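Shipment paperwork, digital attachment
Item: protein structure file
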Amino acid sequence: MIVTLKPFLLLLVSCFLLMTGYGLSNILLPVRMQSDGISIDNIGLVLSMLSVGFLFGAIYSRKLLQRVGHIRIFAMCGSLTSVAILLSGLHPDPLVLGIMRVITGFCIACANATLDSWLSFSANEKNRARILSINQMVLMSALFSGQFLLSIAPIEGMTLFVLSGILFSLAITPIVISKQQGPQIEDSQAMSLLTILKLSPLGVVGCFYCGLLYAGLLNMLPIFASDNGIAGLDLSIFMGAAILGAIILQFPIAYLSDQFDRRRIMLGMVVTIILFSLTIPFLLRFEMFHLSLFAIAVITGMAACLYPMSMSEAFDKVLKEQILAAMASLLVIYALGSILGPYVASVVMSLFGSNALFTFMIIAASTLLAFIIVRMKQRTALPNDQQDNFVMQTPSGAVSELDPRTDYVESAFEPTAEVEVAISLATNNPAAAVNMAKALALRDPTNAANLAAALSTIDEINIGQLYGAITNAAPEMSVHIAEALTSASPEQAEELVDWITTSYPEQFTNIIVAIANSMPDNGIRMMELAAENMTSDDSTELLQMTEQYMTDLSDSLDEMRPVDRSAAASEQTATELYSRLSDVSPEHSAELALTVSEALPESSNVIAEAYVNNLIESENSQDDTVDAVENIESAVNDYLSQVVENIPEYAVDVASTIIDSVPEVASDMVELLQDSEGIDAHELSESIDDKPEQDELEQQLLDAVQTQTESLNNGQ
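Attachment content:
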């Protein structure tokens, strides 16, 4: 953990100082406003203004970071929040306080977005989940610590406001003196609210209610506590217990979320909020302070966990590349709820007394409970093994690229000292830069790929020559170098493939497939180009290359989230690959079709259809019609024989597909299937029972195979 934290230590220190000051301001302002005689509903309105600023910060923070930069934005946020809290102490007028809360909310959202994007840029695929967890723990620990600063000085004076301002100002220092430079970030677009609502109504509603309940409770809880005689250190302990519950309860909720239906867990969480909200006023009335601490920790913990739980529920329905956009929309939904929550709670408390805060919690939670029950009846639960993992997270105003569920995009190359020198050299002397890369490959092969990726972006350098120079020095890095070059300069991928297939025959298959895999949108074109450069004697390499590419595709499908797997269109990919390669090498059409089908069996039907259509088109172009028919019949029989031998579970479906196009071979298909020992009788029977009738000849096939199945069953 120390190794993980070391590069980010100063960033985390800045986060801790900022959020400690923020935590102190959150408990100080409502207590001070109550002491100044401001009405409860006006207090709620002022506190709601924080979320208005938070909403604008969440929407515009990334654009500001692009325009101004990380260090300047964070310095601005620290400075403005310091000014805002000091002016709040000097001029405790509701209008001034409301404006200052808007500024504070905006700055906190921008500061958190700055820290999160900075950490995201510095993290890698392996450690970003851990860094996210550490960042969240630092954030919540700082909020917890801020509650206990309230007892340092009287709330009537300026000391606590000055202390909060000092913490905000001090937060700037660690990040300014940090050696890390702020990264360049790209703008991200939020998914439309209507789209995310259609995909996951419960995820959207859950985020809204989290803002309504969590923000309403935490903002108005100091007023409730003061009216019930809780003051000084006891008030800090009471509020600290609420924050602590939001930290600790994420761990058991995370475990339960990954083991059971999320909606049932959410149902239990809401019921728990309702039951414990009933107890708080009675516990304080009978002076059971310690039990009330436990109860308030449970309530706030459950309310806080609604946010990551709702996000997980929504992400189960969203493609991986859409998660960041969905996260931005859900953050807006949460902010809308958190604007409404404190004000509605304050109005209820103003009308019915401070204890009505928990009446508000019970009524609001009951409506969410009803919605969850309705959704459970309308849609069946996603199997547990298909649910996305729960990630502990609090709404901070940042669209977190640290979230391990997001699509991680690694930078093309790291701007090291060697890279800077090589790029500078390449502009005037490309050959010298290539020689430098070659020398580095001999001395330090692991960093050669980074340098190669950087040099590939220079127009004066030929990517093929660069690849050849480095791989001659470090041949064991040939695949890795090819991937690095393709990722850094995808527009030169065709040139690289062309160079490799004509000048670098060693490890041919592995290199081309690696390049194709690194370009998911254009990988088939890379395979096609490689096939075009092969000679007729390279049929073995062609089939090996096809098999490896399809096997990698099949393996990647196994690792995908269910929603991504459904959208992957693997059968379409398989068909396109087969069609392109068979056009390049028509004499190997049957072998290619079988290779693709065996590597991705679920595509065997569509591949069989494409193969038969190619076969018919090819043979019909011949002059001798009689020979063409005989050739087609012989070819499809040979093809089905191979299917029966290698993927027997798909043999019946493939045979049916063949008969659709070549009905004359129906009797041959029946005979071949009947004679086969590779087809499991029981599975075949089920396949036939589930298959709709299509035409007379196909039904003849199915009836014949059914007869064989029954005879085999009787024989057993």
